[in-house]
Amino acid sequence: MLEVETPALLQHIAPESHIEPVACAAPSSGWLRSSPEACHKRLLAAGYGPLYEIARVFRAGESGARHNPEFTLLEWYRPGWSLDQLMQESVTLTAQILQCPADSASRFTYQRAFLKSGCPDPLNASTEEMRAVCAARRLPLPDETDREWLLDYLQTEIMEPWLAQQGGLILITHFPPQRAAMAKIDPGPPATALRFELYVDGVELANGYQELTDAAEQRARLEAANQTRITQKLAPLPIDENFLAALEAGMPECAGVALGLDRLLMRKLHAERIDQTLAFPYDRT
User: What pLDDT, on a 0 to 100 scale, did the predictor assign at position 104?
Assistant: First the structure.
């Protein structure tokens, strides 16, 4: 596998409704990357791969027990691999580092994990039903929330603590299509995003996709993410035409995953907070 090194400072950055990039001085001066994904896919389209990078990445407003604005991702891509193959590799690598049996990993669909944890059905519940569950559990809510924000909130506040109670390695699969991000969609029925998340003791470590290769569909998703940002009163981000041109030229079928190394170290050390794994967390820089 080829180790690559890609830029941390970018002229363009993929808009995502739930991730705010770090702007450098002014938007015209670029952004610090929130992921090396777009650059990796441009390399894949140019014929490089399989490849990986240990990358420093940045996300604005992310701080807390499991977040630091600057953190380290291990991201890798496997041309010709299926999502199942990549899931198995991700579990095997994580299990080796944490010294636990890889065959102990459990699997839940996104819908089943929500329901088992006491959340409403994520595929069918209305925003009113989701807000009612939050109110019943006395979870604070802003006055205005959209469906995607509520799903993220329920996942963080209810589903992930339930996963922690289950313990061990857990794979979450079969995400709803609207949560596909840059993953392909299996038309089903029912339609599901070809995506997984890997948890250890309730801490999300990895997020993997059967990667979307259709440039037109990717453009539509980026534009939709910008519309969501506008609805959230955030500035839209310029579309990365170089990335879309690489998809148009022909990125190979592949699976890719990003794994948070700081969080992996948290679990290895049985630490409760990410700053216990960092010599210089942001609040001490």
Answer: 85
